Amino acid sequence: MKHRYVEHVNCEREFCPICQGGLSVCAVCGLAEGALTDNCPGVRVPEHAERASYEGRLNFRDGAWREEPNALGWADARVNPHGPLRDQPK
Ligand SMILES: [Zn+2]
Ligand SMILES: [Zn+2]
Fold first, then answer.
1. How big is the chain by its Cα radius of gyration, in Å?
2. Ligand 1: centre distance to CA 2 (Å)
3. pLDDT of 8-31, one tens digit each?
């Protein structure tokens, strides 16, 4: 299924990251932009899974959770700044 994004009606916040900021937050799984998986798991995602998704290590696709060790790369690069994912000196 697809994420169903939160939309506020008559939002009264002074600054709302969703209305003014254009932030996408799924009403079903609770994931926000940056942590959004390819498909919506259909249930509230626990915090550790949200973090893993944000770091590109976890994704929900084709009806199942999938570990993606180097989906984005920067999660590993941050752990090991001298790792092969960084730009190498020429
Ligand atoms: Zn969702
Ligand atoms: Zn709002």
1. 16
2. 7
3. 999 999 999 999 999 999 999 999
Q: Which ligand is nearest to the CA of 5?
A: 1
Return d(Cα 78, Cα 82) in angstroms, integer: 9
pTM of the prediction? Answer: 0.72
Helices (H), the chain: 47-54, 74-79
Residues 6+ apart with CB under 8 A from 6: 18, 25, 26, 27
C-alpha triplet 27, 53, 14: angle, nearest 5°: 45
Question: 36: which 2 tokens?
Answer: 């959004």
Q: How many CA atoms lie within 13 A of 52 on its CB side?
A: 14
